[in-house]
Amino acid sequence: MAVSSTSVGDARGRILRLGRRLIVAAGLIAGAALLQPGALGSQDPVPVEVEALHRPFDEVLDIYVRDGFVYYNALRTERVRLDRYIASLGEASSVDGWEAPRRMAFWVNAYNALVLQTVIDRYPIRGKAPQYPADSIRQISGAFERRQFRIAGRSVTLDQIEKDQVAPLGDARALLALGRGAQGGGRLRSEAYTAARLEAQLAAAAREVVEHRGLVHVDATAGVLSVTPLFSWREDMFVRTFAERADARFSTRSALERAVLGLVLPHAVRGEAEFLRKNDFRMQFHEFDWRLNDLATR
Protein backbone atom coordinates (compact mmCIF):
# COMPACT_ATOMS: atom_id res chain seq x y z
CA MET A 1 0.00 0.00 0.00
CA ALA A 2 1.42 3.39 -0.98
CA VAL A 3 2.18 5.90 1.75
CA SER A 4 1.69 9.59 0.95
CA SER A 5 4.47 12.10 1.50
CA THR A 6 2.10 14.09 3.70
CA SER A 7 1.58 11.10 5.99
CA VAL A 8 5.32 10.55 6.21
CA GLY A 9 5.89 14.23 6.97
CA ASP A 10 3.23 14.24 9.64
CA ALA A 11 4.70 11.12 11.21
CA ARG A 12 8.16 12.65 11.31
CA GLY A 13 6.72 15.80 12.86
CA ARG A 14 5.01 13.80 15.56
CA ILE A 15 8.21 11.91 16.31
CA LEU A 16 10.17 15.16 16.68
CA ARG A 17 7.51 16.65 18.95
CA LEU A 18 7.36 13.50 21.04
CA GLY A 19 11.14 13.69 21.42
CA ARG A 20 10.90 17.24 22.76
CA ARG A 21 8.21 16.20 25.22
CA LEU A 22 10.29 13.30 26.51
CA ILE A 23 13.29 15.57 27.04
CA VAL A 24 11.20 18.02 29.04
CA ALA A 25 9.58 15.21 31.01
CA ALA A 26 13.02 13.97 32.08
CA GLY A 27 13.77 17.41 33.49
CA LEU A 28 10.40 17.80 35.17
CA ILE A 29 10.35 14.81 37.50
CA ALA A 30 7.76 16.40 39.75
CA GLY A 31 5.28 16.56 36.90
CA ALA A 32 6.07 13.21 35.34
CA ALA A 33 2.88 11.63 36.63
CA LEU A 34 0.89 14.05 34.51
CA LEU A 35 2.52 12.90 31.30
CA GLN A 36 0.71 9.60 30.86
CA PRO A 37 0.11 8.21 27.37
CA GLY A 38 -3.52 9.34 27.44
CA ALA A 39 -2.51 12.92 28.17
CA LEU A 40 -0.06 12.97 25.29
CA GLY A 41 -2.67 11.52 22.99
CA SER A 42 -5.08 14.36 23.81
CA GLN A 43 -2.80 17.06 22.45
CA ASP A 44 -3.70 19.12 19.42
CA PRO A 45 -2.80 17.77 15.97
CA VAL A 46 0.63 18.66 14.63
CA PRO A 47 0.22 21.64 12.32
CA VAL A 48 1.12 21.03 8.69
CA GLU A 49 2.96 24.31 8.47
CA VAL A 50 3.84 27.01 11.00
CA GLU A 51 5.05 30.37 9.79
CA ALA A 52 8.72 30.88 10.65
CA LEU A 53 7.90 33.89 12.83
CA HIS A 54 5.67 31.79 15.10
CA ARG A 55 7.69 28.56 15.11
CA PRO A 56 9.50 29.36 18.40
CA PHE A 57 6.16 30.01 20.10
CA ASP A 58 4.73 26.81 18.65
CA GLU A 59 7.59 24.95 20.32
CA VAL A 60 7.04 26.74 23.63
CA LEU A 61 3.36 25.81 23.64
CA ASP A 62 4.06 22.24 22.62
CA ILE A 63 6.48 21.77 25.52
CA TYR A 64 4.84 23.71 28.35
CA VAL A 65 1.06 23.50 27.73
CA ARG A 66 -1.16 20.50 28.46
CA ASP A 67 -4.91 20.65 27.90
CA GLY A 68 -4.94 24.41 28.45
CA PHE A 69 -2.81 24.31 31.61
CA VAL A 70 0.75 25.60 31.75
CA TYR A 71 4.00 24.46 33.39
CA TYR A 72 4.59 28.04 34.56
CA ASN A 73 7.44 27.19 36.91
CA ALA A 74 9.37 25.34 34.21
CA LEU A 75 8.64 28.06 31.65
CA ARG A 76 9.87 30.70 34.08
CA THR A 77 13.26 28.98 34.44
CA GLU A 78 13.57 28.36 30.70
CA ARG A 79 12.03 31.55 29.35
CA VAL A 80 14.65 32.66 26.82
CA ARG A 81 12.80 31.29 23.79
CA LEU A 82 9.55 32.98 24.82
CA ASP A 83 11.23 36.32 25.48
CA ARG A 84 13.05 36.22 22.14
CA TYR A 85 9.84 35.39 20.34
CA ILE A 86 8.04 38.36 21.90
CA ALA A 87 10.97 40.60 20.98
CA SER A 88 10.64 39.43 17.37
CA LEU A 89 6.95 40.38 17.40
CA GLY A 90 7.93 43.88 18.42
CA GLU A 91 9.99 44.22 15.25
CA ALA A 92 7.36 42.77 12.90
CA SER A 93 6.49 45.28 10.18
CA SER A 94 3.62 45.84 7.74
CA VAL A 95 1.29 43.69 9.86
CA ASP A 96 -1.70 45.92 9.06
CA GLY A 97 -1.25 45.10 5.37
CA TRP A 98 -1.36 41.33 5.82
CA GLU A 99 -4.36 39.26 4.83
CA ALA A 100 -6.92 38.78 7.61
CA PRO A 101 -6.06 35.16 8.57
CA ARG A 102 -2.39 36.01 8.94
CA ARG A 103 -3.17 39.11 11.00
CA MET A 104 -5.55 37.15 13.21
CA ALA A 105 -2.96 34.46 13.87
CA PHE A 106 -0.34 37.13 14.62
CA TRP A 107 -2.43 39.01 17.18
CA VAL A 108 -3.85 35.92 18.89
CA ASN A 109 -0.35 34.49 19.25
CA ALA A 110 0.94 37.83 20.51
CA TYR A 111 -1.81 38.04 23.14
CA ASN A 112 -1.23 34.48 24.34
CA ALA A 113 2.54 34.92 24.50
CA LEU A 114 2.23 38.17 26.45
CA VAL A 115 -0.11 36.56 28.97
CA LEU A 116 2.48 33.82 29.57
CA GLN A 117 5.21 36.43 29.99
CA THR A 118 3.05 38.49 32.36
CA VAL A 119 2.47 35.48 34.58
CA ILE A 120 6.05 34.21 34.72
CA ASP A 121 7.32 37.72 35.49
CA ARG A 122 5.44 37.46 38.79
CA TYR A 123 5.29 33.72 39.34
CA PRO A 124 4.48 32.38 41.85
CA ILE A 125 1.64 34.88 42.21
CA ARG A 126 0.56 35.49 45.78
CA GLY A 127 -1.82 38.43 45.73
CA LYS A 128 -4.07 39.82 48.43
CA ALA A 129 -6.93 41.40 46.47
CA PRO A 130 -9.97 39.68 48.02
CA GLN A 131 -12.10 39.69 44.87
CA TYR A 132 -9.73 37.33 43.03
CA PRO A 133 -7.99 34.03 43.85
CA ALA A 134 -4.55 34.54 45.40
CA ASP A 135 -2.78 33.03 42.37
CA SER A 136 -4.85 34.90 39.75
CA ILE A 137 -3.30 36.94 36.97
CA ARG A 138 -5.74 39.61 38.16
CA GLN A 139 -3.55 40.00 41.24
CA ILE A 140 -0.96 41.58 38.93
CA SER A 141 -1.85 45.26 38.89
CA GLY A 142 -2.85 46.49 35.42
CA ALA A 143 -2.03 43.16 33.76
CA PHE A 144 -4.64 43.65 31.05
CA GLU A 145 -5.42 47.34 30.94
CA ARG A 146 -2.18 49.19 31.85
CA ARG A 147 0.90 47.06 31.25
CA GLN A 148 2.47 48.13 27.96
CA PHE A 149 4.15 45.87 25.40
CA ARG A 150 5.88 46.65 22.12
CA ILE A 151 4.26 44.64 19.33
CA ALA A 152 4.42 45.33 15.59
CA GLY A 153 6.24 48.59 16.23
CA ARG A 154 3.61 50.02 18.57
CA SER A 155 2.92 50.12 22.29
CA VAL A 156 -0.16 48.12 23.27
CA THR A 157 -1.88 46.58 26.29
CA LEU A 158 -3.57 43.18 26.30
CA ASP A 159 -6.98 44.85 26.32
CA GLN A 160 -5.99 46.97 23.32
CA ILE A 161 -4.90 43.88 21.39
CA GLU A 162 -8.27 42.26 22.04
CA LYS A 163 -10.41 45.32 21.34
CA ASP A 164 -8.44 47.09 18.60
CA GLN A 165 -6.76 44.23 16.73
CA VAL A 166 -8.64 40.95 17.24
CA ALA A 167 -12.24 42.21 17.51
CA PRO A 168 -12.22 44.30 14.29
CA LEU A 169 -11.39 41.15 12.32
CA GLY A 170 -14.98 40.13 13.00
CA ASP A 171 -14.83 36.53 14.20
CA ALA A 172 -15.99 36.00 17.80
CA ARG A 173 -14.41 32.55 17.84
CA ALA A 174 -11.06 34.31 18.17
CA LEU A 175 -12.12 35.57 21.61
CA LEU A 176 -12.29 31.93 22.68
CA ALA A 177 -8.74 31.46 21.38
CA LEU A 178 -7.30 34.07 23.73
CA GLY A 179 -5.58 32.41 26.68
CA ARG A 180 -6.37 34.75 29.55
CA GLY A 181 -4.20 32.94 32.08
CA ALA A 182 -7.38 31.74 33.77
CA GLN A 183 -9.22 28.48 34.13
CA GLY A 184 -12.44 30.19 33.07
CA GLY A 185 -11.16 31.26 29.66
CA GLY A 186 -10.98 29.36 26.39
CA ARG A 187 -8.47 26.52 26.28
CA LEU A 188 -4.91 27.58 25.51
CA ARG A 189 -3.81 25.31 22.70
CA SER A 190 -0.56 23.35 22.63
CA GLU A 191 0.26 24.90 19.27
CA ALA A 192 0.57 28.35 17.76
CA TYR A 193 -2.16 29.75 15.55
CA THR A 194 -1.22 29.90 11.91
CA ALA A 195 -2.91 31.39 8.85
CA ALA A 196 -2.85 28.07 7.01
CA ARG A 197 -4.88 26.31 9.73
CA LEU A 198 -6.74 29.22 11.28
CA GLU A 199 -10.24 28.13 10.24
CA ALA A 200 -9.75 24.62 11.65
CA GLN A 201 -8.23 26.00 14.85
CA LEU A 202 -11.04 28.50 15.45
CA ALA A 203 -13.64 25.83 14.67
CA ALA A 204 -12.03 23.65 17.34
CA ALA A 205 -12.15 26.53 19.83
CA ALA A 206 -15.89 26.86 19.18
CA ARG A 207 -16.51 23.11 19.54
CA GLU A 208 -14.67 23.00 22.84
CA VAL A 209 -17.05 25.52 24.43
CA VAL A 210 -19.57 22.81 25.30
CA GLU A 211 -16.84 20.63 26.84
CA HIS A 212 -15.70 23.37 29.23
CA ARG A 213 -17.99 23.86 32.23
CA GLY A 214 -16.24 27.16 32.91
CA LEU A 215 -17.74 28.43 29.64
CA VAL A 216 -21.07 26.65 29.28
CA HIS A 217 -23.01 24.39 31.62
CA VAL A 218 -26.43 22.90 30.91
CA ASP A 219 -28.45 22.01 34.01
CA ALA A 220 -31.60 20.35 32.70
CA THR A 221 -32.85 19.55 36.21
CA ALA A 222 -32.83 23.22 37.21
CA GLY A 223 -33.89 24.39 33.75
CA VAL A 224 -30.80 26.60 33.41
CA LEU A 225 -28.22 27.32 30.73
CA SER A 226 -25.32 28.85 32.65
CA VAL A 227 -22.69 30.62 30.54
CA THR A 228 -19.49 32.59 30.94
CA PRO A 229 -19.74 36.37 31.33
CA LEU A 230 -17.24 36.55 28.49
CA PHE A 231 -20.26 36.49 26.18
CA SER A 232 -21.63 39.66 27.80
CA TRP A 233 -18.22 41.37 27.92
CA ARG A 234 -18.01 41.10 24.13
CA GLU A 235 -21.73 40.97 23.39
CA ASP A 236 -21.66 42.93 20.12
CA MET A 237 -19.07 40.63 18.58
CA PHE A 238 -20.80 37.40 19.62
CA VAL A 239 -24.15 38.71 18.39
CA ARG A 240 -22.68 39.66 14.99
CA THR A 241 -21.05 36.26 14.58
CA PHE A 242 -23.64 33.85 15.96
CA ALA A 243 -27.13 35.35 16.49
CA GLU A 244 -28.33 34.66 12.95
CA ARG A 245 -27.28 31.01 13.26
CA ALA A 246 -29.86 30.33 15.97
CA ASP A 247 -32.99 28.35 15.11
CA ALA A 248 -36.15 30.35 14.44
CA ARG A 249 -37.78 28.83 17.53
CA PHE A 250 -35.58 31.15 19.61
CA SER A 251 -36.72 34.33 17.83
CA THR A 252 -38.35 35.79 20.97
CA ARG A 253 -35.14 35.55 22.97
CA SER A 254 -32.60 38.37 23.25
CA ALA A 255 -29.92 38.79 20.60
CA LEU A 256 -27.25 37.61 23.03
CA GLU A 257 -29.23 34.51 24.00
CA ARG A 258 -29.65 33.68 20.31
CA ALA A 259 -25.93 34.17 19.78
CA VAL A 260 -25.07 31.79 22.61
CA LEU A 261 -27.48 29.20 21.26
CA GLY A 262 -26.11 29.67 17.74
CA LEU A 263 -22.69 28.83 19.11
CA VAL A 264 -23.59 26.08 21.56
CA LEU A 265 -26.34 24.00 19.94
CA PRO A 266 -24.36 22.65 16.95
CA HIS A 267 -21.82 21.14 19.34
CA ALA A 268 -24.01 20.06 22.27
CA VAL A 269 -24.42 16.37 23.08
CA ARG A 270 -27.79 14.89 22.18
CA GLY A 271 -29.45 15.10 25.60
CA GLU A 272 -28.39 18.71 26.16
CA ALA A 273 -29.36 19.69 22.61
CA GLU A 274 -32.83 18.20 23.06
CA PHE A 275 -33.26 20.09 26.33
CA LEU A 276 -32.26 23.40 24.75
CA ARG A 277 -34.49 22.92 21.69
CA LYS A 278 -37.52 22.70 23.99
CA ASN A 279 -36.80 26.39 24.66
CA ASP A 280 -38.00 26.08 28.23
CA PHE A 281 -34.97 27.32 30.17
CA ARG A 282 -33.45 30.51 31.45
CA MET A 283 -29.96 31.65 30.64
CA GLN A 284 -27.76 33.06 33.39
CA PHE A 285 -24.18 34.18 33.70
CA HIS A 286 -21.94 32.45 36.20
CA GLU A 287 -18.86 33.95 37.80
CA PHE A 288 -15.72 33.92 35.69
CA ASP A 289 -13.10 31.56 37.11
CA TRP A 290 -9.95 33.65 37.49
CA ARG A 291 -7.87 30.88 39.06
CA LEU A 292 -4.52 30.60 37.30
CA ASN A 293 -4.33 27.82 34.70
CA ASP A 294 -1.28 26.43 36.46
CA LEU A 295 -0.56 22.75 35.88
CA ALA A 296 1.19 22.59 39.26
CA THR A 297 -2.11 23.18 41.07
CA ARG A 298 -4.45 21.28 38.77
List keywords for this structure.
disordered N terminus, 43% helix, three-stranded mixed β-sheet, 7 strands, mainly alpha, 298 residues
Please provide a written account of the structure.
By secondary structure, the chain is mostly helical. It has 2 domains: 8-204 and 292-297, no CATH class; 211-285, no CATH class. It contains 12 helices and 7 strands. It has a 3-stranded mixed sheet with strand order 5-6-7. Strand 1 (65-66) and strand 2 form a beta hairpin. Helix 6 packs antiparallel against helix 7 (158-166) and helix 10 crosses helix 11. The relative contact order is 0.12.
Order of helices and strands: HHHEEHHHEEHHEEHHHHE
Say how many strands there are. 7
Report the uncertain regions: 1-13, 25-43
List the domain count as a whole number. Answer: 2
Instruction: Please report the distance between the alpha carbons of the first and last residues.
Output: 44 Å
Helix-strand category: mainly alpha
Tell me the overall shape.
Answer: globular
Average pLDDT across residues? 89
Number of helices: 12
Q: Radius of gyration from the CA trace?
A: 20 Å
Biggest β-sheet strands, sense, barrel: 3 strands, mixed
Strand order, sheet with most strands: 5-6-7
Strand content: 5-15%
Helix content: 40-55%
Lay out the secondary structure.
Blueprint: H1 5-27, H2 37-41, H3 55-64, E1 65-66, E2 69-70, H4 72-77, H5 80-90, H6 100-122, E3 149-151, E4 154-156, H7 158-166, H8 198-207, E5 216-219, E6 224-227, H9 230-233, H10 235-242, H11 255-264, H12 270-277, E7 282-285
Parallel strand pairs: 6-7
Antiparallel strand pairs: 1-2, 3-4, 5-6
